């Protein structure tokens, strides 16, 4: 499937003579220039990215783990498979900011077999993203077996099996974490994928179904004996979903008692550089997978690497640098999906990108209005984050009444599958509108 592009070019009508050079570059790119492919680096100069890449380039890399034919330097960082988040634009952005490997959104084996366009689109990967794994899930052994050749043909570096998604609608189909109630089925699905795949197979799962059925050490031993190339464990049970603290003590137990040579990757509450280093130090995992910590925060990978290498924590990007990253993300979205769809899809990302800035809620409200890439950029470039507090306009009363109780409280007409905004209490690794359905951070 080829990347879909916007066919329209709009002349630059904005005044740029009084704006900084980096702003002029963004405006020019938004109105005139288009990427030839998703893998082409952006033309606008980004000093924040340059600084982080310079730091990473000067670090001494030590091979610490191998997944199939893939060698990784010491303490590799992985982008988690997050539904409605880990699409090509976001993956490419994370790669540019230091992710060692990433995974796609989880792909429904049943959807592939039914030729659903949305599921087949998830198989689309680009060279700049490599190494990359495509994650697949399914509730039936034959279903997953028959879908595996389709996944394999897409050319990922590895195929990952989702045995950890806690979402009810997935579990009810015996997929995701539902398999934790039937370890024989887990073994059979894994064997089916390995029989059909021509590339390494990895697994992502959880500690167990609930506290009374934590058999993860035995599961790790079983998977390694089967020849699974790597194991990632989210340190919560299915019953916990994303509540409470991740139980890192289990990660150390798995590493010490459940694995011998199989690479082991930890996941859960790795939300900032300090926590990432702490997971390595406290658990002994070979790698760390980031989910919520990367949402609206793709630079976390390089910041974490710099922190682990030097002990110094680089500051997060300032306002101008953050606008550059958002503009880069938006451009990639529009190149992949076309301008109108790209602009609409990008709306779900603004909350996490601008969280913590003064008047962020006002900015988010304003960013929901434009329907063109240039319009979105104009809002960001004209916004003053240090201005006095601004109130978001209240909903207007219907013209025929002044009764406040008559206000139309229907939600805006936006896609149902937007992920919830970031934050420790939310579940951004999800793409459903129901809070209890944190669809697929995958596991």
TrEMBL record:
Keyword Signal attributed: no
Give the required cofactors. FMN
Q: Name one GO molecular function term.
A: tRNA dihydrouridine synthase activity
Which residue intervals make up region (Disordered)?
392-443
Q: Where is the DUS-like FMN-binding domain positioned along the sequence?
A: 79-379
Q: Which CDD domains match?
A: DUS_like_FMN (cd02801)
The protein, known as: NifR3 family enzyme
User: What organism is the protein native to?
Assistant: Salinibacter ruber (strain DSM 13855 / M31)
Question: What lineage does the source organism belong to?
Answer: Bacteria, Pseudomonadati, Rhodothermota, Rhodothermia, Rhodothermales
């Amino acid at each position: 499937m080829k990347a879909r592009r916007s066919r329209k070019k709009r002349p630059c009508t904005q005044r740029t003579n009084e704006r900084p050079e980096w702003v002029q570059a963004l405006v020019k790119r938004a109105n005139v220039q288009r990427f030839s492919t998703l893998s082409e680096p952006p033309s606008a100069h980004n000093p924040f990215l340059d600084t982080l890449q310079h730091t990473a380039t000067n670090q001494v890399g030590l091979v610490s783990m191998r997944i199939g034919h893939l060698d990784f330097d010491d303490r590799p960082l992985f982008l988690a498979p997050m539904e409605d988040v880990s699409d090509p634009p976001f993956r490419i952005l994370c790669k540019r900011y230091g992710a060692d490997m990433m995974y796609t959104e989880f792909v429904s084996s049943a959807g592939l077999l039914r030729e659903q366009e949305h599921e087949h689109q998830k198989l689309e990967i680009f060279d700049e993203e490599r190494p990359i794994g495509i994650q697949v899930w399914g509730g039936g052994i034959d279903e997953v077996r028959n879908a595996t050749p389709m996944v394999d043909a897409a050319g990922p570096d590895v195929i990952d099996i989702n045995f950890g998604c806690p979402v009810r609608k997935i579990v009810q189909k015996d997929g995701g974490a539902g398999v934790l109630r039937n370890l024989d089925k887990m073994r059979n699905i894994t064997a089916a994928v390995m029989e059909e795949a021509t590339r390494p197979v990895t697994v992502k799962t959880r500690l167990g179904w609930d506290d009374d059925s934590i058999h993860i050490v035995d599961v790790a031993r079983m998977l390694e004996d089967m020849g699974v190339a790597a194991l990632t464990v989210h340190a919560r049970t299915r019953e916990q979903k994303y509540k409470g603290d991740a139980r890192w003590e289990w990660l150390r137990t798995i590493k010490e008692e459940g694995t011998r040579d199989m690479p082991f990757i930890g996941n859960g509450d790795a939300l900032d550089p300090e926590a990432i280093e702490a997971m390595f130090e406290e658990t002994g995992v070979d790698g760390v997978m980031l989910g919520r910590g990367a949402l609206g925060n793709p630079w976390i990978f390089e910041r974490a690497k710099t922190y682990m290498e030097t002990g110094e924590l680089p500051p997060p990007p300032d306002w101008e640098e953050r606008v550059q990253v958002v503009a880069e993300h938006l451009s990639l979205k529009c190149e992949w999906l076309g301008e109108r769809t790209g602009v609409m899809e990008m709306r779900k990302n603004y909350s996490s990108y601008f969280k913590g800035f003064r008047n962020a809620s006002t900015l988010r409200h304003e960013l929901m209005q434009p329907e063109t890439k240039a319009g979105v950029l104009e809002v960001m470039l004209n916004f003053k984050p240090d201005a006095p507090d601004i109130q978001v306009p209240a909903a207007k009363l219907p013209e025929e009444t002044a009764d406040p109780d008559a206000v139309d409280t229907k939600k805006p007409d936006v896609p149902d599958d937007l992920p919830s905004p970031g934050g420790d209490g939310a579940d951004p690794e999800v793409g459903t509108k129901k809070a209890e359905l944190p669809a697929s951070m995958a596991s």
